[in-house]
């Protein structure tokens, strides 16, 4: 039986079978070029025959942005009177009535004028998406809810307008519009971001070099998270085993009852520190062998040291150490493994192969660090 569209009489439009697709342009701060990039892509799609309109554009009197909007249809804003003052907001019902294929919406985190049907602009965007219309939108990294406290610590500024992280999680595509802090400062000094009277104050506050560097790193990390999570999600839905796609480094130290395990934990912690990477330690128990008191205390010392370095201690039981390490590496999406030099006799290595050899054969796209130590 054919699925018929759902007619919504209170809205006067037909609810489509599919939800619109959402593409978010995100940047480290105002002035990086998110809106310009969105308009540029809107023009390209229009040339290809897509019906594109501007739902809401905030130019901040930036001449390059104003010029880039020329040639794209703009849906007139609705007027809202509040406290005797008439203000304007995006006209969501008019956009839905117009039924374009794609609508461009600036400043996703904006708070609507009191008296509007919805409190936040991102809520208007969700209504547009539900109507089957694709949306391009823009937002700055400091407006993400989960980063609010971190951004306040970095910049000393509490961002009041925020959007839930799920908007990026649910977006069909996230594009980071990136420029260097030096380029952004140059744009600011040239008057391309704010009016001349605001330039010096901006450079001394939000646009300080250290702030821009930290915010840029946050924006790039957010993109890396999106890439990695998307690859994992696609792998989970694939019938074939997906290869690793780990953007972030993760360090795993394999400890044993040998005394050099303490050295390995320290070396692994240093490596993770250099890489700004999560840190894990793994001990594989032999199910057929109980640890004596001295060995148990040694493993407890390794666990305590791992936790002191901010790491997570993992303990599993398996007869096959190489298999256990490989399984944990896969589960925790490890990119770097630290192990000690084999302390088996030469004959055992010749007969059965070393743990290192077994790991190198079973692990793909993972670097293995072999730390030399004196045999005891």
TrEMBL record:
<feature type="domain" description="Signal transduction histidine kinase osmosensitive K+ channel sensor N-terminal">
    <location>
        <begin position="18"/>
        <end position="227"/>
    </location>
</feature>
<dbReference type="InterPro" id="IPR003852">
    <property type="entry name" value="Sig_transdc_His_kinase_KdpD_N"/>
</dbReference>
<keyword id="KW-0902">Two-component regulatory system</keyword>
<dbReference type="GO" id="GO:0005737">
    <property type="term" value="C:cytoplasm"/>
</dbReference>
<protein>
    <submittedName>
        <fullName>Sensor histidine kinase KdpD</fullName>
    </submittedName>
</protein>
<keyword id="KW-0418">Kinase</keyword>
<dbReference type="GO" id="GO:0005886">
    <property type="term" value="C:plasma membrane"/>
</dbReference>
<dbReference type="GO" id="GO:0000155">
    <property type="term" value="F:phosphorelay sensor kinase activity"/>
</dbReference>
<dbReference type="InterPro" id="IPR027417">
    <property type="entry name" value="P-loop_NTPase"/>
</dbReference>
<dbReference type="InterPro" id="IPR052023">
    <property type="entry name" value="Histidine_kinase_KdpD"/>
</dbReference>
<keyword id="KW-0808">Transferase</keyword>
<dbReference type="Pfam" id="PF02702">
    <property type="entry name" value="KdpD"/>
</dbReference>
<dbReference type="InterPro" id="IPR014729">
    <property type="entry name" value="Rossmann-like_a/b/a_fold"/>
</dbReference>
């Amino acid at each position: 039986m054919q699925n018929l569209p759902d007619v919504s009489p209170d809205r006067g439009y037909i609810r489509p079978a599919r939800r619109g697709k959402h593409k978010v342009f995100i940047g480290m701060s105002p002035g990086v070029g998110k809106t310009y990039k969105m308009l540029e892509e809107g023009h390209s799609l229009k040339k290809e025959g897509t019906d594109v309109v501007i739902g809401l554009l905030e130019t901040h009197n930036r001449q390059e942005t104003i010029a880039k909007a020329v040639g794209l249809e703009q849906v007139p804003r609705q007027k809202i009177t509040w406290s005797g003052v008439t203000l304007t907001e995006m006209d969501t019902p008019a956009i839905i009535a117009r039924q374009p294929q794609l609508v461009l919406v600036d400043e996703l985190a904006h708070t609507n004028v009191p008296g509007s049907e919805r409190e936040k602009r991102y809520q208007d965007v969700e209504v547009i998406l539900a109507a089957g219309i694709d949306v391009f939108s823009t937002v700055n990294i400091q407006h993400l809810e989960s980063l609010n406290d971190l951004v306040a610590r970095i910049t000393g500024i509490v961002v009041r307008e925020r959007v839930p992280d799920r908007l990026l999680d649910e977006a069909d595509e996230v594009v980071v519009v990136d420029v260097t802090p030096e380029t952004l400062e140059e744009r600011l000094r040239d008057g391309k971001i704010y009016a001349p009277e605001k330039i010096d104050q901006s450079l001394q506050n939000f646009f300080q070099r250290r702030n821009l560097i930290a915010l840029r790193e946050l924006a790039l990390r957010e993109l890396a998270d999106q890439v990695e999570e998307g690859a994992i999600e696609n792998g989970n839905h694939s019938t074939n085993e997906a290869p690793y796609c780990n953007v972030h480094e993760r360090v795993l130290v394999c400890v044993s009852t040998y005394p050099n395990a303490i050295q390995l934990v320290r070396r692994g912690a240093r490596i993770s520190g250099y890489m700004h990477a999560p840190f894990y330690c793994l001990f594989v128990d032999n199910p057929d062998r109980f640890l004596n008191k001295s060995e148990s205390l040694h493993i407890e010392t390794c666990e305590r040291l791992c936790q002191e370095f901010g790491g997570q201690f993992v303990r599993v039981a398996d007869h096959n150490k190489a298999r256990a390490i490989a399984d944990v590496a896969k589960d925790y999406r490890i990119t770097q493994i630290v192990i000690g030099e084999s302390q088996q006799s030469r004959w055992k290595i010749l007969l059965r192969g070393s743990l290192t050899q077994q790991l190198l054969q079973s692990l793909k796209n993972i670097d293995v660090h072999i730390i030399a130590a004196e045999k005891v």
